[in-house]
Amino acid sequence: PTKISKETLPMDSTELRQSILKHLEFSMGKDLVHASLYDMRMALTLAVRDRVIEPWFRATRATYAAQSKRVYYLSMEFLIGRLLEDAIMNVGLTEAAHEAVAGLGFDFETVLADEPDAALGNGGLGRLAACFLDSMSTLGCPAYGYGIRYEHGLFRQSFAQDGRQVETAEDWLRQAHGWEFERPEASFRIGFGGSVAENGRTAIWTPEDAVLAKAYDTPIVGWQGKWANTLRLWGAEALTAFDLAAFNKGDFTAAAAPEALARTISRVLYPDDTTEQGKELRLKQEFFFTAASIRDILRRFNAEHSDLSGLPSRVAIQMNDTHPAIAGPELVRALVDESGMEFDTAVETARACLGYTNHTLMPEALERWPEELMSRVLPRHMQIIERIDESHAKAHPKRNVSIVENGEVKMGELSFIMANKVNGVSALHTELVKDTVFAELNALHPGRIVNETNGVTPRRWIKGANPRLSSLITDTIGAGWEDRLERLVELEPAIADKGFRNQFAEIKARNKRDLADWIERDMGIAVNPAAMFDVQIKRFHEYKRQHLNILETIALWQEIRANPGAGWAPRVKIFGGKAAPGYVMAKEIIHLINNVARVINADTTTRDVLTVVYPPNYNVTMAERLIPASDLSEQISTAGKEASGTGNMKFSLNGALTIGTLDGANVEIRDLVGPENFFLFGMTASEVVECRKTPDHAARAIKASNRLGAAIEMIEAGAFSNGDTEMYHGLTQNLRGHDYFTVCADFDSYWDAQRRVDAAWGDQDNWTRMAAINTARTGWFSSDRTIQGYMADVWKITPMI
Ligand SMILES: CCc1ccc([C@H](C)CC(=O)N[C@@H]2O[C@H](CO)[C@@H](O)[C@H](O)[C@H]2O)cc1
To answer: What is the E.C. number (predicted)?
Structure first.
């Protein structure tokens, strides 16, 4: 394909200021003297968006001209965060924007802070999708992201007086956000329910319900504005917006019902990130966006080609976990029922287009839809799933792998069988996928499973979030590392230089002072900016073991009180993260952490050595604030449970040291930075499996560890619940009993590792050396490298730039 390399033309601050002023007046209809913060943010957004249009059009034209294959990334979640600063950086306008906005009498940071996060995701899976969009645009990989335009993203988290999590609806669309283009011409009628009539080799499905899926396009510009792809999010609308008859009869709710009902489909993101709820609305959401996307893909293909057997050479569809798994049956339905393709040929053609990424081994996260529900909501698809199951069983008579089992439709098996490539998201995870959840299918389809270890975009997570470190990197190795992150290794020689280490340490110190100011301003808690910032930020889940962290914190507090003069490394323990609203145990852990913080922070004897901080409503923007100011990254999941982790990569790249288990991508981080620059603890995945064979493994561990026993007893005694001995009963009982995630069995190893951390902290210059080595040796964890892997191994596509 013709390589195109013309970068976006530079623009100086004067031109940009003119463009902002033009939009303020003509797009926002506001005179500068009356402009609000929102007006200024929107005017700046529109001025920057103008700069994105050109590479966007150029990319689309080049893709059509080259008849290039396209990637379609189907995901129920895109955890984008804020867009403005990222776009400004990608089109090279950061300095100009600072000056232009200041020249118009506004503070740039304040204008940026006015943008709400697009929180269209729960955690790792959603954020990975957002990083992938940035990398596909930066690499010039022709691609569409397809998802749902939720009116309400992930809930806002606040804490009640007693420290419990409170959820309130998130409302990012209460104001226009300026980045999306409504596309009424790209609308599709999506049916549900109804009946199926046989029609020879095919069938006719007559849905009983239907909604309109309307497209909203957001341009995603890559580094240096060379290319821009499209994120197409579907919004649900009623086919008939208003029931005038009901209105005339004065039944206003009935009149508005059609619209309200239809919009329910794209109203809100399900806040669960590990437990499938099996809710009908969730299934409808999954089908809604998947079917609209498949229709849009086929419309685009048919506009350029007449022979559908050529589809795989032009279309690569990636299913981000099982949530879009219905894509297989829907594509087969369209090819058979609407284009008359023979069934088995249709299955082959569909499979040749489809890839499936598995992000979790947690049994409760693997989607299984009741056959009854699937038959009722998607009767034709249920028929097709059964036929796919039959033909797979016929092709592999010996083995008993089925999609439909015990009245349930297993979406993992369906995705595997309908995909030509299945991938895990870290080396360890991919091996576990082969050996556990898909062992049978792996044996039947050797070579179908490949590994694509996750990555993160260096644009948002280094260049954007840590400008001070970015300047040091550029000063040291020159520019160009932003889309060639493997070049960070060139930093290594400089690490031997004390001057460089001092600069590195000073950058971390300044980032920490900024964070300390924010914590003081936002939470009224004064923290010691010279203390070690020990950070655990991620969704709350028992396998991520935030409760192991707080147990160690309690034991440490006790130890400091017992030996105040022992020269403890001063620490600020920072937690961040949300729990799914229905996840009781995770919410109990949040409740405990807030109350341990209350008690420890009130202890004047240990005040300067240990502080616990838990800012509410952790999100992408908060991660961008916390990670550059972190010294210690907590990646302490039960080995074998965290598929990869991506926060771990962001911390290492920003010069934090990891305390962690041999789980997910921690293994590959440790391999790259070197065991001497990583604080390892805990059982391996196979040792955990062994450990569980001893039913009372927790009781034994508690008996063997006084510190652990004492910490649990403190909780039970009501030390963190104003004497209420029942408050955390569920948690302590679970720890003494089942303790499935081996918190107790791993406690002493974790404690010892934390003491090694203390010792290392004592030599600040050596700590800085280890931190800088983490930055220098983790360039491999760029999502550009990950996407290059998908392009070569899965999508068989070559970049256009
Ligand atoms: C059906 C409810 C539901 C929703 C989301 C999910 C996701 C798969 C959970 C998730 O975000 N998994 C995380 O994906 C990251 C990106 O690959 C990994 O880095 C994390 O280890 C993994 O937990 C499971 C179940």
So the answer is: 2.4.1.1
